[in-house]
Amino acid sequence: METATLTTEMMVVLGLLAFTIFLFVSEIVRVDLAAIAVMVTVGALSYLPGLENLADTGELFTGFSSNAVISIIAVMIIGSGLDKTGIMHRVAAVILRYGGRTEARIIPIISGTVGIISSFMQNVGAAALFLPVVSRISVRADLPLAKLLMPMGFCAILGGTITMVGSSPLILLNDLIVSANEDLAEGQKMATFGLFAVTPIGIALVLAGILYFVTLGRWILPAPKGRDAQSGPTMAEYLKSTYGLKSDLVEVIVPDGNILLGHTLQDIMDAHHLYIVGQSHDGRKVIAPQSTMEIHTPCRLAILGRAKVIRAVSEIYGLKVLPELVDFAEEFAATKAGVAELVVHPNADIIGQTEQELQFRQAYGMSLLAIHRGAETMSRVETNEHEATRIAAVPLQAGDTLVVHTPWQLLSRLRSDRNFVVVTSDFPEEELRPRKVGWALLFFLIALGLIMFTDMRLSLCLLVGAVGMILSRVLSVDEAYGAVSWNTVFLLASLIPLGQAVQNTGTANWIAQQLLAILDGWPVWGLQAGLAVLATLFTLVMSNVGATVLLVPLAVSVAVAAGGDPAVFALTVAIATSNSFLIPTHQVNALIMGPAGYSVLDFVRAGGIMTVLFLAISIPMLNLVF
C-alpha cells in the first residue's frame, strides 16, 4: 500500500471532523442544524484553491437523494400507514399482555423482536416500523419513551449482524472478498460466507444488548424530562387536579354465576356511588354502556370510583380486582381516549333535559363523569370533597361544563354539534382506518418481498410500498409528508458530504496507516482488535459502506502479512461497522433521537459502554466461530 502523506486538504478535513464532534457534544446548536452548517462549510471550502477535493459541489446535495435517506423517508411513510390502520395498536396490546408494564419485561420483548426483524430487513426500517408501537406502549404502560427507544434502536443495529443480509456492509462483504481474491495466491484465497454464517455472533450481540439495558438501564438511560407530551395526565390526575375529584379506573372480573347476574349496571352504580364505564362479555366489549344494561356472567367491568370503595364492593359480591387494566387497556389508553370538557351552548336544544332523558351514553358514546356549574362540581362518584350526586337526573343549563370520558375520535366529530362547545383542544385527533388494513398489509408485504427476493434498490422497494399506501388511500399525501421526521432526514443527508470528504481526500487512508503503524509488531489478535476499533471510529464519521469498502482490502493485506485468516479479518471489519452507538450519526440513532428527546451526551453515556461491550463480545465470538 502506498504511504499516505498528510496534506493541507487532510488537515482541513481533520479540523472539520473535530469541529463537527464539538458541535454534536456541546449542542450549542441542534444537531441537525450543526450537520447542515458542516455541509455548507464543506461546500464553501471546496471553492478555495488547493481544497477542490473536499467535495464535488455539483454533487454536494446528493445526500438528500441517497439510497439511505430515501429508504428512511419511505419506511416512515409505511410505518405511519400501518399505524393508521390500527395494526400497531394490536402489536402494542400483545406486547403489553405478555410484557406487563415494567421495563425489565417490556425491553427484552421489544428489543428482541426488533433485533430479529432487522436480521432480514434494514435496521433503520425495523426501527422505524416499531417506533409507533413503542410510542403507544410508552403511553399505555406509563413508561418514559426515553427508557424504551434507545434499547430498541441499539438492538435494531445489533440485529443487523445476525445474517449476511442484515446490514449493507455484510451484504457487500462477499463481493469485496471475490474482488480481493484476485490479488491473493491460490492457497490464500477466501471462501464467501453463507447466509447464516454470522448468526451465532449476531445473537450473542443482541442478547448482550438486551441484558445490558435490563441490568444497567436505570443508570445509563436518560431520566425522563417530564411526562411525555403525547400522553398528558392520566384520567385520575386530571380529575383530581382540575375538579378535586379523586377517582381511579379499575377493572374487575365478575365470575360465572355471580350474584350480580341479571342486575343492571344502574343497580350497582346507585347502590355504591360507582360509575361503570365499560363491560366485556363473551368477546363483546361495550364502552360507555347504557345504565339499563344487564350484567351477564362471566364478564369484566371497568369501574370509575375510589379504589378502596371498589375493593370493598368487590369483596361483598365476590369480584376479583385486577391490579391494572387488561381487557380495557386499549380503549382507555391515553392515545385513544381521555377526559374532555364540553360546554352547553346557550342556544342548545338540550337545555332543561337530563342525561337520562338524552340517553347521553347511547347518543354520544361518552361517559358523563361530572357537571361543573359555577363554583360547584356535581359528580356521580363520592370523594372526600364531594358528595355523590345523581347527575343523571340533573337538568342541563346553558354554560354547564360537562366533564366526559370520550374516545378522541368521537370528540372530533362532536365539534360540528351545535349543542356543545368543545373546550378541550390538545388531544390526539387520530382517525384510524381499520377498513384499509388489507391494503396496508398488501403493500407492506410487496415492499418486503421486493427487498428479500429481488435485486431492486432498497429505496425503490420501500417507495413502492409507500406510494401504494398513498394511492390506496391508507394515507393522504399530506399525512405522508407529516409522517416523515425531516430533522432526521436533514441530519443524515447533511453528514454525507463530510464522509465523502474523509474518503476522497485520503484522510481515511492516512488515519488507517497511522493506527496500523502503532500496531506494528502486535500479535494477530491485537491487529484484529485494532482493525475493529478503526472500523468503529470510521463508521462514526462516514457511511458504514464507505468504511467497509476502504478497510476490507486493508484488513486482508494486514492478515496475509501477519499470518492471520484474511476472511476473518475482513468479516471483523464488516461487523465492526455496526458498532455505531457513540453519537447519533447512524441512521437508527438519528431516527430515535428526536421522538425520545435524547441529547448527544445521552448517546455518549449509554453508547460508550455499548461500544466496548460490542468489541469485547464480537472479537472473541469471531475467533470462536471461525
Describe this structure in words.
It is a single chain. With 626 residues, this protein is α+β, with helices and mostly antiparallel strands. It contains 25 helices and 10 strands. The strands form 2 sheets. Strands 3-2-4-1-5 form a 5-stranded antiparallel β-sheet, with helices on one face. Strands 8-7-9-6-10 form a 5-stranded antiparallel β-sheet. Helix 3 packs parallel to helix 6, helix 3 (67-84) packs parallel to helix 17 (458-471) and helix 9 runs antiparallel to helix 25 (600-625). The two termini are 27 Å apart.
Q: What separation lies between the terminal Cα atoms?
A: 27 Å
Radius of gyration: 30 Å
How many strand segments? 10
Largest sheet: 5 strands, antiparallel
Share of helix, binned: 55-70%
Structural class: alpha+beta
Short recap of the structure:
With 626 residues, the protein is of the alpha+beta class. The chain has helices at 8-26, 31-45, 67-84, 87-99, 103-117, 123-140, 146-159, 168-181, 199-220, 235-243, 265-272, 307-317, 355-358, 360-364, 408-414, 437-453, 458-471, 477-483, 486-504, 507-518, 524-541, 544-562, 566-576, 587-596, 600-625; strands at residues 248-254, 275-281, 284-287, 299-305, 320-321, 337-344, 367-373, 376-379, 401-407, 420-422.
